[in-house]
Amino acid sequence: MSAPDPQPDPAAGHAPEPGPRAPAVHYALGVDSGGSGVRIALGPVGPRGAPAAEPLTWHSPTPALVGKRGIDAAGLLGQVLPAAQRLLRQVGAERVAAVCVGAAGMASLGDDLRAHLPTALADALGPRRLALAADGVTAYVGALGQRPGAVVAAGTGMIALGTGPGTGPGDKRHGGWRRVDGWGHLLGDCGGGAWVGRAGLEAAMRAHDGRAGGSQPLLSRLEATFGPPEHLPGLLYPRSDRPAVLASFAPEVGRCAATDPVAAAILREAADHIARAAQAAFPHPPTTGQAAHGDDVGALALTGGLFRMGAPLVGPVRRELARRLPGVPVTEAAGDPLAGALRVASALAADALRLPVDGELLQVL
Amino acid sequence: MSAPDPQPDPAAGHAPEPGPRAPAVHYALGVDSGGSGVRIALGPVGPRGAPAAEPLTWHSPTPALVGKRGIDAAGLLGQVLPAAQRLLRQVGAERVAAVCVGAAGMASLGDDLRAHLPTALADALGPRRLALAADGVTAYVGALGQRPGAVVAAGTGMIALGTGPGTGPGDKRHGGWRRVDGWGHLLGDCGGGAWVGRAGLEAAMRAHDGRAGGSQPLLSRLEATFGPPEHLPGLLYPRSDRPAVLASFAPEVGRCAATDPVAAAILREAADHIARAAQAAFPHPPTTGQAAHGDDVGALALTGGLFRMGAPLVGPVRRELARRLPGVPVTEAAGDPLAGALRVASALAADALRLPVDGELLQVL
Q1: ipTM for the assembly
Q2: Cross-referenced Pfam families, in alphabetical order (chains A, B) (predicted)?
Q3: Which CATH architecture has domain A146-190+269-332?
Q4: Is A161:A138 a contact under the CB 8 Å cutoff?
């Protein structure tokens, strides 16, 4: 959104360093900790807290451990601090102005991080400001920046998160974050990958049994993927990653949808669930009248691996969104959660963070 | 179905014992092994293999162990043999004519039983005949005897089993057993207790999130049962008995259905699934024309704890069954799986077993 700009941000209130050199560049550090590993990004802070240039990045495939005290701070720091110090040396800087750590499960599993990160990061990297964010928040900011609106993140699970103008932080309905679904494969995640895959496997087993409403094409895909249908329970139930196994069948539903009405109906129902979640997360759902007047109603971004299925799902989702949120632009996510974490850190460094800080999904220490 | 009759069954082909005494009474032993324990019933064999009097019964709350070799034969025998010998002494007999062991998981977990039961039972109880049956078969026979038809068993899970006139044993479509659903809570069991409970909890969480299609009454029941909705994932997912936890909410859906349209819709959809399963399991689904001619079309029995919910579920189920299986009488189950196991053993003792012996759901050794 802005050209690279090495100027320090006047809004951040830093005095320029003394001497004949050019004004100092401030750096922000974003951290994204999730099931597939830990990633960090270091980049210069531009005007109004926008990243000022392509960041340097580093990636470890080793996820942070989750133990009795939640996400293990020492293990995460053991990966992040040396890597961040190497990136700092690469850009010739000694400290960062702000850090944002985004982590899956931050709200419920972040106690150890909240207890140990402030001091450890201050000692090693010297940031003035530190933000701890749920991965939903970094996904939001990666997708939409600080614009109002909502993000639907659909992978194995499904969660929607929205924020926008309203009455202030802490008011979840109007001013804070609106978190919708994300309750896991037995209580919700409706329309997500495990939901779609399970519905597809159920329809396949209906065909296997000779029940009405079954799908022979999905049964063929089940047999090609898992073998004899009667052995599938023995394959699935002993595993600990059952939701991922279910979600692995979602692309088969997508492949069948063009010619199989049962598969197409599953994706229409998934799209309906996704649109309901987006509607509930979106701030101040506009009426058609408002939208017609050209108000800035915010944007909706779709993100996550499930949408790689493409038209069979994205088509129905866009149709349902047009019905439930008329006039709201639906966009591709501009960046990923790592970009979102860096963006939060940059905004924090520039005192330009406008997102609600609620102490749960987004916390500034 | 028949009056008590201590006469030996001529069809069984036993020679009456010599001497001046009355003709000997033959006894059959039924065993029902399931998750809630082990039960046995010993009763006299009547004409054509019908039980001739109320049996003596015994119950242990200790279920048979399931280990790497499946259901543990030694443990089951350790409970059954002494109890059966005590019951034999009570009736003044020394041996049984036939035994039927019905067990949950017999088809997939019965290898150890098939290996060890014949010899051990022969040594201790001396039966001429032994049948091993899946619990679905004993539920069928308990409910319908040897009549053609189908049984729907709905508790935490849901399975339908049917049999009837056709081309002979082993032909699953026409002459053998037709097993439908029972695939567990992630692949089917559609319309069962876990299915109903999960749908109810999903609707409650929709209301909690402000999504369209939620149910405020179900949300109130969730809060009364489990506490704050946002803590429910933490309560549910770590447990190993997740299906039972889901099913524990099914009665709440039943309680709300009279006044809550969302709960009522869940039970209508469950009823549709149950009726589809019954239709697929039923032998030779009659056309309306056939039924009008008064053919014996067999019967359908509903059994299992879910139907204790009563009218909110049974009403829609009967309506759906009338639509999918017109003319088929829907009956209460006459007896439970233990009665079914005893009935199979009695029929076997009298050489009057007419049910398909397929080596999987029902095996005679």
Answers
A1: 0.83
A2: BcrAD_BadFG (PF01869)
A3: 2-Layer Sandwich (3.30)
A4: no
